[in-house]
## 1
Amino acid sequence: MSATPAQFRRVAETARPRVAITIDGAPASALAGDTVLTALLVNGRRVRHSDFGDGPRAGFCLMGACQDCWVWTEAGERLRACTTYVADGLAIRTTPEAP
Amino acid sequence: MSAAPPPVIVGAGPAGVRAASVLVAAGLRPIVIDEAPASGGQIYRRAPAGFMRGAAVYGSEAAKATAIHRTFDSLVDRIDYRPQTTVWNLRPGRLYTVRDGVCDELTFGDIVLATGAMDRIVPIPGWTIPGVYALGGAQISLKAQGCVVGARTAFVGTGPLLWLVAYQYLKAGGTVAAVVDTTPFATKARQLFGLLRGGKTFINGLRYVATLRLKGVRITEGAIPVTIVGSTHVTALRWREASGREGSVDCDAVAIGFGLKPESQLADLAGVAMRWNDGQRVWEAARDRDGRTAVEGVYLAGDGSAIAGADAAEIDGALAAYALLADRRVTVPEAAVAELRTRRARLTRFREALDAAFPFPAALAAATADDTLVCRCEAVNAGELRAAARDLDAREVNRAKAFSRVGMGRCQGRVCGPVAVEILAAALGMPTQALGALRAQPPIKPLPMTAAVRLAAE
Ligand SMILES: Cc1cc2nc3c(=O)[nH]c(=O)nc-3n(C[C@H](O)[C@H](O)[C@H](O)COP(=O)(O)OP(=O)(O)OC[C@H]3O[C@@H](n4cnc5c(N)ncnc54)[C@H](O)[C@@H]3O)c2cc1C
Ligand code: FES
């Protein structure tokens, strides 16, 4: 577990198998059945940066409506974090390209 | 009749499931499309494979959830079910979908739109700070992910869902920092007679409030939210009590919800007229009590056309399917339809009492401070919106949208729309409904880049 404070707290369903992912290159842990958004927010406090430079964002509607949670994969694919599930080896980027 | 293409149902929530069930019973094989990986819709959303809590997550509604899930499972072999498929456009007789980045089209004759609702928001200064979530989203996180959205969550807004989700957080072992309801207690008490019609639903509501109080949760009614404090994440919520005193609570998450609004974009694209619901202060797609619209072959059911809750959505789904069958000259059970209409009318009266008990705070929305962001997608604040209204004389909401970019972003005004119209109306001194409804535009949800590229190549 990383030392970064998390936004989300797990209160149930913690017996699921672990899934290894990376977030901006750093290894992180998630559980099978987590959305990408959940995986990001149990590991930290943000999902992406606003397109307008007004700060970090961490999703909002959690139901695929507000579109404020689009992230990228290392391969450059775009995905909506709150409606996409993690898979072993998923490499997430919270910024469009490697800095 | 055999030549007619199969009916299409968009949405596999309580409304869509009941519609499918009636159509299958009549010997049809409907196409059921839902962007979620499983049936159930919002309220009866199913957890991903491997989750263990089962129906317990639905609390008092567990039996209904199980019934809907079982019904749908029993239908799966007799329908053409297309999960994880988003409908992103609709033209007369033609539907455009995307699944896993692959676009598809299909021709339809009859269609039932059962697209459900989403949270309605009033922007509170600071609402884009990480840790602020839509109320329904906070519930989804708990039900379908086993997570609370923060270590200490404050609930702000109004409506029965505010109290329900706060209660569910408490029950699940979360910490509820406060419940800040903008509706004064007296407004609710005045509706007591109408609310009693809700029977068990009303009793459950009282139980949620009582439990929150008993557990010592800080509760305030008739308050005005002032600001969400924080930079990289939420640290507090501040409000002004009805007495004028300032209130504040430390928290690392805020759930905001001011009732729900229909997901009516597909109905709009289908050419169904929008009508103003003055009790809820939202635009909704016009239909008769059976779900028929003025557009032939287009039927509406559930919260996607009129916010009335899950029980009403189930009835709506069945009624819309019966209307569709009757229009195809299939004999429908008149007595059953009459009974459904009666039950639905009762729920409508309960809903009207709820709407009056938890009114949308239009004045609060209209008073959104100039420097508060209204549109998260395009970063437009209330001041820019007001300026567009006054300087460019935007007396129609779609003109204001073109000038200010409010509602032009990725979410298509789903989040900012209801607030934008209140701000504009107040700035122009016009009744809100006179500004008209924000028009839907395809794609109603953004296409993944791969799909957009593939589409362009065609
Ligand atoms: C987040 C949330 C939480 C809620 N929680 C409660 C609760 O706890 N208790 C309560 O009484 N009410 C709750 N409600 C109210 C809820 O709207 C109704 O109770 C009920 O779910 C309405 O049923 P429905 O069938 O009309 O729509 P829904 O249950 O919302 O189902 C609509 C379905 O349509 C699908 N859909 C929508 N648009 C598209 C598209 N373009 N393409 C493909 N599929 C699409 C959605 O994925 C969804 O599965 C909640 C609402 C929301 C938004
Ligand atoms: S959080 Fe709103 S679309 Fe994902």
## 2
Amino acid sequence: MSSLNILGLNLELLLNEGWGEALLIGLYRSLTIAFGAFALGLVIGIFASVGKLYGNAIVKQLLELYTTIVRSVPELVLILIVYFVGADLVNAVAGLLGYSYVEINGAAAGVFVLGFVQGAYSTEVIRGAILSVPVGQIEAGRAFGMTGAAVLRRITLPAMLPAALPGLSNLWLIAMKDTALLAVLGFGELTQVTRQAAGSTKEYFTFFLAAGCLYLIASLISNVVSRRLEVWARRGLPQDIRA
Amino acid sequence: MSLSSDAVASPEALHVEGIRKSFGSHEVLKGIDLTALQGDVVAIIGGSGSGKSTFLRCLNFLEHPSAGTVRINGEDISLKPDGHGNLAPSSGAQIRRIRSRLAMVFQSFNLWTHMTLLENVIEAPVRVLGLERKEAVLQAEDLLNRVGLGHKIHEYPSFLSGGQQQRAAIARALAVNPYAMLFDEPTSALDPELVGEVLKVITALAEEGRTMVLVTHEMAFAREVASKVVFLHNGRIEEQGAPAELFGNPQSERLARFLGNFQ
Ligand SMILES: Nc1ncnc2c1ncn2[C@@H]1O[C@H](COP(=O)(O)OP(=O)(O)OP(=O)(O)O)[C@@H](O)[C@H]1O
Ligand SMILES: [Mg+2]
């Protein structure tokens, strides 16, 4: 079929017939959703970890329930549940408000669903990191008259970063890979596009290997970035001999 | 200094009455009264576990006392039961305002490790007192110079010696132009050869008339700089007075025995 066939890889299909571009668009969508989900998870994680540490008994119980459930149920199941329940809820609310059927935006749904899952893991990562901040530094903030929110923003959160970053980088990698689960919802991210391309050309090996490489490259770049972030976050700390 | 826009300075920088504190069934403070006039240096001495740190922390309500009143610079801190048998400040705004001018220096320095010395020193003036950043930086450079750290202002605390860290912590405390400074064993975490440099800074502050409450195990230092020495024992003030009297002629057998440990 083509002249560019190396090691059983059909490069012609990738380079000249537009499938490569389709994969890149899929990758872009995957990364966008992963980024949105990771950011949403981070926001949930910050609030939920603070709630878990400093909230009242009811708040603590509810958050414990959230993190426990999300972390025990397989992600694929959660995604299906949250997606369909979420869609029903949105439509119920829309119905009440007198709107007709609302089409759920795939990307927004992906961000929401994955972010909800990520949030549970972020919560635990950040909670642990906050507990690693020497309590004296927090007390010093209070002793100088800072509000609780100022102590959190100026002291606790920046000081917990070195301990949180390795866990958070890991969560980012998971977020990228978990976008593949959205393929079950028919959302056109990298894995879904790959399946389509492979299906219609019957070049399974070529396309799944190409997709695997794209995921790998994205991860490698992420690792470089997170290494740099870690160095920056640790700027005030002596070199750790284990690092 | 730019922050000296206080209304009238009360002759009493600090006045507390009847401070009690229990942890569970263990009563650590059993009714402490103390007054520090402007410029007073009150040294609090006593054995380990006698409640010195607890008392100091009750002054700015890092610890909630079970009973008592605290007046700072003539202003009573309004209190309410905290639901755990202790008293909490009833106004967050008031206690934050008072804390922001009651600087505390800790045994373990407690500098913010993610901030340089300069950032540590300007943090409270800028974020809490609302000082212009530019002005705060000038003031911080000046203060860090005074404690001999002018060449380290952009360094992070963890890379400095304990003595340097504690001097930076003192500069941080001075930056809010405090009504009174609270020191909790500022030299106890230091190697012996670093104690002197920190005591020298504190002595200079005493000489310029700073009001200080100082928990210390450095008896010679207390004798030299304090205007009043308070000996805590079992949660009570066992004896208090001018350093010469207290150290030269202890009345109680307990104080005599305590001082004997330092001979
Ligand atoms: N948060 C707490 N919970 C329970 N007990 C406490 C707490 N803080 C202090 N205590 C107890 O209160 C007593 C007085 O402690 P405090 O730290 O005030 O003593 P100190 O005079 O400062 O001693 P040191 O010289 O060792 O610093 C001790 O018996 C201590 O165990
Ligand atoms: Mg103590």
